Amino acid sequence: MLNCKHVAHKASDYVDENMSGWQKFWMVIHLFICANCRRFVNHVRVTRDFMSKRPSQQASNSEVSEVMRAINESDQNKQP
Ligand SMILES: [Zn+2]
Predict the structure, then answer these.
(1) Nearest 5°: phi and psi at 20?
(2) What is the pTM for the complete model shown?
(3) 20 CA → ligand 1 middle, Å
(4) Domain residues of the chain, as ranges?
(5) Distance 44 CA to ligand 1 centre (A)
(6) Each residue of 19-73: pLDDT tens digit?
(7) Distance 58 CA to ligand 1 centre (A)
(8) Under CATH, which number does the domain 1-53 receive?
(9) How far, in Å, is the centroid of ligand 1 from the Cα of 34?
């Protein structure tokens, strides 16, 4: 039987469905009897869903080019 500490460590694997059959079985049993871990796993799931739906924070190639052009222009305009 899993304890709460073990469930907390494995919560993201469970949410990602990255568990073997028996691990998942014991996880489900524990979540059935333990409201605290159910709440914790739900929180992990909500957080994971939110993070996956966020727009990408990476700059596009055109944004990078625009910034590099601005840097080069400011270097050329510098007085010696
Ligand atoms: Zn628990």
Answers:
(1) -75, 165
(2) 0.65
(3) 19
(4) 1-53
(5) 14
(6) 999 999 999 999 999 999 999 999 999 999 888 887 767 788 898 999 999 999 9
(7) 37
(8) 1.10.10
(9) 5
